[in-house]
Specification:
The structure is a homodimer. Chain A has about 300 residues and is of the alpha/beta class. Chain A has twelve helices and eight strands. Chain A has helices at about 15-30, 55-70, 80-85, 90-100, 105-115, 125-135, 150-165, 175-185, 225-235, 250-255, 285-295, 300-305, and strands at about 40, 165-175, 195-205, 210-220, 240-245, 265-270, 280, 295-300. In chain A, strands 1, 2, 3, 4, 5, 6, 7 and 8 form an eight-stranded mixed sheet that branches. In chain A, helix 8 (about 175-185) links the parallel strand 2 (about 165-175) and strand 3 (about 195-205). The interface of A and B includes residues 36, 180, 190 and 203 of A.
Chain lengths: ~300, ~300
């Protein structure tokens, strides 16, 4: 048990300039900012937990698409079910490659499948499925369960912030209702502080409390400029600290700027192929922006003593 | 200062069956339900504060429409600016009368004006305007400032629930960003727990943190079946207690039903024309439903020793 206000939470961090900038920021925030304004927001995939070789939710969705194609042969000739059924990693890779090159044709095809995959399911059933998957499935290459793919130094950072009066939120492009069943256990973040992408929902009443179900349409995708909008909508605040790792996090990190209060935009750099993965794809502009704006870059290789 | 867990918060309530059902519910919830699941949701207009002769936000919007028409003569021939400029209470009354009769033509006209009234304004500017209005404007007939139009027994109920581990949320058809500047001071409800109707927002980045502005379109109207959807989206929970006063609150009150936990749907009845207002218009189905489902009806006349 760490003492609130001390930095002994950050034991998986090397004593580098990065760690010192975090501690300095937190000490200034505690001194200068009322507790209710101490808000921190975190991207999830690639920031709090591993996103390679594919986002954890991607695995969850592919298994569901496989299951659908297995039950209905007609789906096997249609994307994205075809790729899921044939375990066609190439098609799935192309989705992201073409997305980064500006062509979202395959993204829309994939999204159509994703929305169809859970259309009509109740939020309770969806949560039970996500919960079961997350607590039992294994990462394909790291030799650990998905819930053990959270980064120990980031979990420590969350604890350190909380001990210093911060309210931590997850502002992820991943699905809000997918993450909610495990965020308290893994990150100490309660479900009401999970912001993320969402499908549109429908409520139908009955004499037993009614049911909320997933519709086959997106409510919003919590990425890029939607992140500040969703953070404001949920918290009514501009965060003092935001952490991300990709181009879609740029607006959220920009949004931390304060004229008269300490603020800290953190960008995680995946540069450790031995202990995790080594990639900058999808983070090119974010890294340029970090250099130009003086954001604090967290190097997994240099700043973290332990990764998991 | 009241002791947590005691009922001496509820001093403005008569010792009636209603008050006893509240106390009994809270005691059962404390005994049986983990603290993180103790969620309570409250409608605002007509439930936490007075909504007659018109919702407080209606006055705020009419003043803005008047201001716009004053600056631009062409608007004076167009509804809803015409009604605002001519202080035509009849047209405004007709909006609600026709709405309850199933004709939303005028509602849409009014909504168009409402959305145009703040299009392009930043969320910070909007908040400053709402804050100034709410802290200075007076109720037209009650002889008190709008912030003194909150019901003392309901504010006590919020405090009693909070002292017993509940998280209170406002789930109002009124504007989320309109209420946020005053909910902590008036109700002890922090801004992140304010759910309400919202206009769509836009984020544009710059080197000073960027700006979120109101667009001229609704994001959603938090009423009727949207209330359970928005409560779920924000909290990830089904509330144990919900309080409302009109037909638009029926789904939220239904949504409190639990098979295995105590729950309490509360419907406020405006039956005290001497101390507040006496009306059931817009609450007819809710009152029928309350009688059929055994909801607890709070009579202002009989259950409240003090109203304000």
């Amino acid at each position: 048990m760490s003492m609130p206000g001390t930095t002994d939470h950050l034991t998986s961090w090397h004593d580098t300039a990065t760690r010192r900038s975090i501690v300095e920021f937190v000490e200034r925030a505690v001194a200068d900012v009322p507790v209710e304004e101490r808000v921190a927001t975190f991207d999830n995939d690639g920031t709090l937990w591993c996103e390679k070789p594919m986002p954890i939710q991607g695995d969850f969705i592919l298994r569901r698409l496989f299951e659908m194609a297995d039950a209905d042969p007609e789906l096997r000739d249609r994307q994205p079910w075809k790729a899921a059924y044939e375990r066609d990693a190439r098609w799935l890779d192309d989705v992201m490659t073409e997305h980064y090159a500006g062509d979202d044709t395959k993204v829309r095809t994939l999204l159509g499948g994703v929305l169809a995959a859970y259309a009509g399911i109740s939020v309770d059933e969806f949560e039970a499925k996500a919960d079961r998957f997350l607590r039992t499935a294994e990462h394909p290459t790291l030799g650990r369960g998905y819930l053990e793919c959270a980064y120990a130094p980031m979990v420590e950072l969350l604890g350190y912030l909380e001990a210093n009066g911060f309210s931590n939120y997850i502002a992820s492009g991943g699905g809000r209702d997918f993450m909610r069943p495990i965020t308290q256990d893994v990150y100490g973040i309660p479900r009401e502080r999970v912001i993320g992408s969402a499908t549109a929902l429908d409520y139908v009443g009955d004499s037993r409390g009614g049911t909320i179900t997933h519709k086959a349409e997106a409510d919003y995708l919590d990425d890029g400029p939607q992140k500040p909008v969703r953070i404001w909508s949920r918290t009514g605040r501009r965060p003092l600290l935001a952490a991300g790792n990709s181009n879609g996090d740029i607006p959220m990190l920009d949004f931390t700027w304060h004229e008269d209060k300490p603020f800290l935009p953190l960008l995680l750099l995946h540069d450790d192929g031995d202990r995790e993965f080594d990639y900058t794809s999808g983070a090119e502009q974010a890294l340029e922006k970090a250099a130009a704006s003086g954001w604090t870059v967290v190097s997994i290789k240099q700043d973290w003593a332990t990764v998991f």
